[in-house]
Amino acid sequence: MSKADHQSAIAHEGSPAINTVLVVDDDIIISMNTAALLEELGHRALEANGGAEALDLLVANPAVTLLVTDQAMPGLRGSELIAEARKIRPDLRVILATGYDGLPGERPENVVRLDKPFGLAELENAVGTALGTQVSMKPI
To answer: Would you say 112 and 129 are in contact if contact means Cβ atoms under 8 Å apart?
Structure first.
């Protein structure tokens, strides 16, 4: 599926997307898979392959309610992207997907951590937690 298809696809035909989610990962396979899982859950997924592109998409798409970002990326790391994104959209909900145990530097506030690798159930739980539809929040 092309990037354009991911940006416009909705998992459940005929029903509106629950949320617009911005997926950021420098590994295109991971971003495509994450977007596909989100679409399977009924969300609209936009993909960016780095921090600068993500910030541009965030500005251009006011419907984005959730950011799912990798931590280890060239340029802006995930935690840096979160800080910049929240300057644009202070109330943005965030999931930080990482395969690392600890995060260097200051940890962002109000962020749900999603351990890589993850599947549909883990992503669904993280999305529910980030959007406030689940009770517990896994600290990073």
So the answer is: yes
Using CA atoms, how far apart are residues 138 and 43, in angstroms rounded to an integer? 22
Q: Which stretches within 70-119 are classed as H helix?
A: 78-88
Integer Cα distance of 19 and 47 in angstroms: 14
Q: What's the burial of 130, exposed, middle or buried (CB within 10 Å: 0-12/13-18/19+)? A: buried
- Residue 36: both structure tokens together: 């596909």
**Residue 118 is part of a domain; what is its CATH number?**
3.40.50.2300
For residue 137, being part of any structural domain is answered with no
pLDDT digits (tens, 9 = 90+) for 117-134: 999 999 999 999 999 875
DSSP label of 107 = P
